Amino acid sequence: MATTKKTAKTETKSLEDLFLDGLKDLYYAEKKILRALPKMAKGAESEEVTAAFEKHRAETEGQVERLDQVFELFGKSARGKTCPAIDGILEEGSDILEEYKGAPALDAGLVAAAQAVEHYEIARYGTLIAWAEQLGKPEAVELLKATLDEETATDEALSALGEGGVNERALQQAA
Amino acid sequence: MATTKKTAKTETKSLEDLFLDGLKDLYYAEKKILRALPKMAKGAESEEVTAAFEKHRAETEGQVERLDQVFELFGKSARGKTCPAIDGILEEGSDILEEYKGAPALDAGLVAAAQAVEHYEIARYGTLIAWAEQLGKPEAVELLKATLDEETATDEALSALGEGGVNERALQQAA
């Protein structure tokens, strides 16, 4: 939240400030996702959903490294800034893990929760790419695009999992 | 959060429960977005960003009505369920309004915040469509698809606004 001290400076805040705030938001988000994915992988019923979360966990490590590099390109140390959006999105994933434990619909709910995470990242990386272009930072654009491509591919893979059997299995009533 | 009482029932939870939980989540989200958009419209610097938020506010009213109809198709009364994800995403929009007030980058930040909202909705409507198909509810699918198309078009319109001048104006340093 803005403090009185911050407000005094707002009028000089330009696109680079906005970009760096967004970068810190994503840095916090990626690190939090890195901690959440093993819990989701462990909680999933089916091997294919577990494998999808484990694969994305490994990818996320590389995405954090790319963010480190983008901070460097802007001459800044990498650091996060609390991101209430990802906190809320991941909280919904934890709720699914608790409320659907042992239920036929658990994996369908986990896949959906992961897609909400992916879409948040797709929105934020898309924005940061547009801003990095405007700021004349082509190397940052390339790094961010590499991650955006991975997030988009992950979202598509999750849709395919849902439609490829996970949603159908969720239809079953438990015995 | 799951309570002990809820846990006792989890094992019977199937895809329809998950669908209805998701519907309540979106109902809460749309109603909250309906209250947030006028503040964002009023806070924006440029007429074009204000107009985009006002247009989407009008659209959102229709989206709430479609959700009412989907609840009816499932024989349920429309009601919301607190959605920490949209709470967090909208909190980030409020922070932009405060922290960038009077700054050249304000509108670029607001457009980005609105795109995060759209992407959350795109993820959730996409999921509900897949589940409604699986549940054999073609009328619900049609209603949800009509809204998904609007959300996707809004996201694209916001990207075009950003790239069509809003991001460039954010580059200016205030005098």
From TrEMBL, chains A, B:
The record's CDD domains line, in alphabetical order, gives: YciF (cd07909)
Domain of life of the native organism: Bacteria
Q: Could you tell me which InterPro entries the record lists for this protein?
A: DUF892_YciF-like, Ferritin-like, Ferritin-like_SF, YciF
Pfam families, per the entry:
DUF892
Indicate what this protein is called per its UniProt record: Ferritin-like domain-containing protein
Organism equals Allomesorhizobium camelthorni
**Native organism taxonomy:** Bacteria, Pseudomonadati, Pseudomonadota, Alphaproteobacteria, Hyphomicrobiales
